[in-house]
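User: Structure tokens for both sequences below?

Assistant:
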Amino acid sequence: MNLSQLRAFNVVAREGSLTKAAEYLSISQPAVTAHIRALEERYELSLFRRNSRGVTLTEVGEDLLKISVQIFALEDKASELLSATKELRSGTCRIAAGSPYFIVPIIAAFQEKYPEVHIGLNIGNSQKVTADLLAEKVDIALQTGWEENPLVEAIPFYRHRVVVFCCQNHPWSQSGKRQIKLSELSREKMIWREPQSITRQVFEKACQAKSLNIKPTMEIASRESLFEAVAAGLGVGIVSSHELPKDQRVHVLNIADVDLETIEYLLTLKRRRELRIVRAFHDVAERFRR
């Protein structure tokens, strides 16, 4: 069905006049007449009775008017939805991140500026974050480490030191030691994240560069569980400084003889970068970049 013809019918039916319908639609009266005639001829029926006072609806015309009112009400609703989304008065921004520590303050600032936009947040490891971004399950990602991909815009956002931490009963804590050499870890029971962890990969590369054969005695997939294991005295852990909560149960040390750091990237698919909601999130996030 031609919607221009249906719209002309709808306005004529509501106004009861071809002249008034033409004025409303900002087209000529012959154009309105042509739309109505085309609709009637296509379906081989009469929608109006013509008389000297104007037009009145036939029975089928009455039924069609009810349907056309619903159709154009839905059109208005769709237009309002799209306009609201363009102005960020609605819609959803889907985000994936490797940890909540830095993304949550950005989300808080974004929601303060755009309170009617719904936020969906997924927390996962780097592989999951990358997969969700490339599959367009999320609009924006913030993750540690990134391998160049021509489909993705990657903005370096934060740099973090990799630090060592142990429980408060450890001799390093008891003596107030604040830094160690990398080789000192070869005598410790090490607790690491899973092999996909970017922090672990950075640490392992540093060990290889110094020909140190340091291996974990325990692997834990969750950073929260790793923290609890170290706090309980099960071993010594490594972590990006920003992921380490303030807790009196653990003692933090810097690694003196190597410069270990991780980089957090803000990621967006290039083809989606100009979406209004993505641009708005980037504008807010820029205030947090350092």
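Moving on to the next sequence.
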Amino acid sequence: MADLSWSVSAPWLARENPRLSSFFRTFGEARWRTPSYCPGWTAAHVVSHMTSGAGFYRAAIENGRKGLLAPPFGAKDVPDFRKIRGKQMEELLALPGEKRVDRFEEAVGALQRTLESLMPRELDLNGWHPRCPTPLRNYADQRLYELILHEWDVRNEPEEPLRTAALGAAVEILMERIPFLWENTEHPQAEGRFRFETRNPGAGWEMETRAGKAVLFKEGKGACDACLSATASDMVLLVCGRGPVPERIKGGRLGIQGDRAKADVLIESVFRPY
């Protein structure tokens, strides 16, 4: 049995992959054509994107473990990579629903086997991503987020929470993810100390940012410039660019205490899709 002690996410992927596959197999043709939360995309587009995404991650990991930090699929650059992904989506969209799910199962199974084959010495090697170089250990976390977020996209019920038993793991991942996002943002960075709190499940942690570096304090109880609070589902959705931040603040679903100006800069730099 693979040693997955390095990953909160990989064991959850082994559960979520078949759960989503079963969910997608309930779709009739009308359901596949239903609009998703993603503008211009149907459920079929989102599932096809998830399928090609699994292939992308697997290729990026295999390249990264060889020391190759380059776009996968033989792409020359980011535009070429996106073009190839687009062609992959077109191919998947042309399939009947059952065949589309077959391809999803094949892709997620291959990615899971690759993740489970990673050795401790390989975890901190970087893989290619269009946003920034990404440690191989992070791909399992990002993939779990994609599964639970894209299910939410497919259901297209914007006021409803994420539907996953992995929400506690998603919050744990968020603690490491927010500093990583802050350090790799292209947007202005707010310096200071910030606290994050979630409900259902409950968690609290702090992050200190200085000179381009972000440090996580899981047990932090220091003096903070601002505190952001929400349900675990809302916090994950907002950090991943789902949901209108002003509306969530106005409706009391995202609480902000302390220095609002610094909190706004932090939100602008971190609360966006990866």
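User: Anything stand out in the second?

Assistant: Strands lie at 126-127, 134-135, 192-199, 203-210, 213-217, 226-231, 255-258.
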